[in-house]
């Protein structure tokens, strides 16, 4: 391996942007998994990718297009009450169809589409870093307020209706935060790299954590560890970043799965 | 909540409730602070529908339901939410339910506080959820078939929670309890209302 490459200033911005995203997406993933909505992340990632390409075709920066695509999907999902596998399947199909059609019919679309599929982190610059800082700030600010409401709504689902509380506010708030996170993650780490960070660390933490606070910390730590390992491996071995990140996430998930015991024979997965 | 302790927390006047079509009613009753009111009826008599109507989750076809101003409710459904994996401890669950941290559950439940709730038995989990409802700050607690999943030992514990001396609970709280087990209702409720289909 070429160790000098890690000291190259060219990779500092991508590294920092990816590191922040790798700490936030698994926490969002844990909440999505608790709501049994992890498949929604894949739908939002496809919509973000399609939004990035369609945005480019319309002269809008890719990051803005990705955010608009995912936020639009998140808002429609939340306000329309679209939940469940069928709704998420439609989101994936709509995003995939728009993505490939935009890629085939725009000049820069084909290359960008391939880059998003590969997850070329190293193209990230100040825009991606600024978006990652914004995402982290939003998550740190909003999640402590949203989390108690979301947990109560999950385990005591009649509570908000019975007390005539405006539950749509915190559901919409979280859906938009998740959509924004997926959009930034997809634009920076690639479609399946971002999805792997949402799904696998949360899945592993759900199996081994002794409580909810541990779940959030473990998910974040597994995400960051997977990201650091993938960064070193992809750069040192000249591999595409997204698939490397997904592979490392899967390896860590496999290790945690082997170490854990299913929750009282109920499977431990969601 | 209502500042007048004599005023009812909840008043039902000739309420007919249902979903697409009426299921239950007409029912009239009122619940005062400190009441433990039982709702008894055979399967399909509309007990749960009436609770849903009180909790704004079913349609009121006619009549009306009056709540005391700023009344807070806690509604424990017939089947507590049970996910394939729930990495929360009993203590986490109580926090979700808004139970103040200084309120300690009975010994039989406190041993579960540091365990993951997906590793509790159905009865243990059910009882923990009911205690979360009773120990929170709600003025009116709605319990739908809380004896489900409970073996005789856990049912005795539930009865003890519901009939504990008022000095050990919030005096302003009332409970509306639905069950098809008449003997259980007779043993824990201050009044029992029969629903006849």
Structural description of this entry:
The complex is a heterodimer of chains A (270) and B (197). Chain A is an all-alpha fold and 270 residues long. Chain A has a single domain (3-258), classed as Orthogonal Bundle (ABC transporter involved in vitamin B12 uptake, BtuC), CATH 1.10.3470. Helix content of chain A is 78%, strand content 0%. Chain A has helices spanning 12-34, 38-57, 62-79, 85-105, 109-118, 126-155, 159-162, 167-189, 191-208, 212-236, 241-259. Chain A starts with 11 loop residues before the first helix and ends in an 11-residue tail after the last helix. Chain B has 197 residues and is α/β, with parallel strands linked by helices. Chain B is built from 6 helices and 8 strands, in the order βββαββαααβαβαβ. The N and C termini of chain B lie far apart (34 Å). At the A-B interface, helix 6, helix 7, helix 9 and helix 10 of A face strand 5 and helix 2 of B.
pLDDT average of chain A, as an integer?
A: 84
Identify the overall geometry of chain A. globular
Query: Any guess at the CATH architecture of chain B?
Result: 3-Layer(aba) Sandwich
**CATH topology-level name of chain B:** Rossmann fold
Beta-strand share of residues of chain A: under 5%
SS summary, helix count of chain B: 6
Unreliable spans of chain A: 263-270
Q: What is the CATH superfamily label of chain B?
A: P-loop containing nucleotide triphosphate hydrolases
What's the count of strands of chain B?
8
- At the first level of CATH, the class of chain B is Alpha Beta
Largest sheet of chain B: 5 strands, parallel
Strand content of chain B: 25-35%
The assembly state of the depicted protein chains is: heterodimer
The chain pair with the largest interface is: A-B, 33 and 31 residues
The shape of chain B is: globular
Spatial extent as radius of gyration of chain B: 17 Å
Q: Indicate the percent of residues in helices of chain A.
A: over 70%
In spatial order, strands of the major sheet of chain B run 5-6-7-3-8
Give the CA-CA distance, first to last residue of chain A.
39 Å
């Amino acid at each position: 391996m070429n160790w000098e490459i890690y000291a190259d200033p060219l990779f500092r911005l991508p590294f920092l942007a990816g590191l922040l995203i790798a700490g936030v997406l698994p926490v969002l993933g844990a909440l999505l998994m608790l709501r049994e909505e992890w498949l929604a992340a894949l739908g939002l990632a496809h919509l973000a990718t399609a939004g990035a390409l369609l945005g480019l075709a319309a002269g809008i920066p890719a990051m803005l297009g990705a955010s608009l695509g995912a936020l639009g999907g998140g808002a429609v999902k939340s306000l329309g009450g679209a939940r469940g596998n069928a709704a998420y399947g439609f989101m994936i199909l709509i995003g995939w169809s728009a993505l490939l059609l935009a890629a085939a019919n725009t000049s820069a679309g084909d290359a960008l589409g391939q880059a998003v599929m590969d997850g070329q982190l190293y193209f990230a610059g100040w825009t991606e870093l600024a978006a990652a800082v914004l995402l982290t700030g939003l998550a740190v600010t909003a999640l402590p307020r949203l989390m108690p409401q979301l947990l109560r709504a999950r385990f005591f689902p009649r509570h908000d209706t019975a007390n005539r509380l405006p539950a749509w506010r915190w559901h919409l708030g979280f859906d938009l935060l998740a959509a924004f996170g997926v959009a930034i993650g997809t634009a920076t780490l690639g479609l399946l790299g971002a999805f792997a960070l949402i799904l696998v660390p949360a899945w592993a933490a759900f199996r081994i954590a002794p409580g909810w606070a541990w779940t959030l910390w473990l998910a974040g730590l597994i995400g960051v560890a997977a990201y650091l390992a993938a960064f070193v491996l992809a750069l040192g071995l000249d591999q595409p970043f997204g698939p490397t990140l997904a592979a490392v996430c899967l390896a860590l998930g496999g290790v945690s799965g082997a170490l854990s015991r299913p929750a009282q024979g109920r499977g431990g997965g969601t | 909540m209502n500042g007048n302790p004599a005023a009812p927390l909840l008043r039902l006047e000739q309420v007919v409730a249902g979903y697409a079509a009426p299921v239950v009613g007409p029912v009239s009753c009122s619940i005062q602070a400190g009441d433990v009111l039982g709702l008894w009826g055979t399967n399909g008599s509309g007990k749960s529908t009436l609770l849903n109507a009180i909790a704004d989750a079913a349609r009121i076809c006619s009549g009306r339901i009056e709540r005391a101003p700023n009344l807070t409710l806690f509604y424990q459904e017939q089947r507590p939410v049970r996910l394939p994996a729930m990495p929360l401890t009993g203590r986490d669950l109580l926090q979700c339910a808004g139970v103040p941290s200084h309120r300690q559950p009975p010994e039989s439940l406190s041993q579960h506080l540091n365990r993951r709730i997906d590793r509790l038995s159905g009865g243990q989990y059910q009882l923990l959820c009911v205690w979360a409802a009773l120990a929170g700050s709600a003025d009116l607690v709605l319990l739908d078939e809380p004896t489900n999943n409970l073996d005789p030992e856990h049912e005795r514990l539930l009865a003890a929670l519901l009939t504990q001396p008022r000095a050990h609970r919030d005096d302003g709280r009332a409970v509306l309890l639905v069950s098809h087990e008449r003997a259980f209702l007779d043993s824990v409720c201050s009044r029992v209302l029969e629903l006849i289909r």
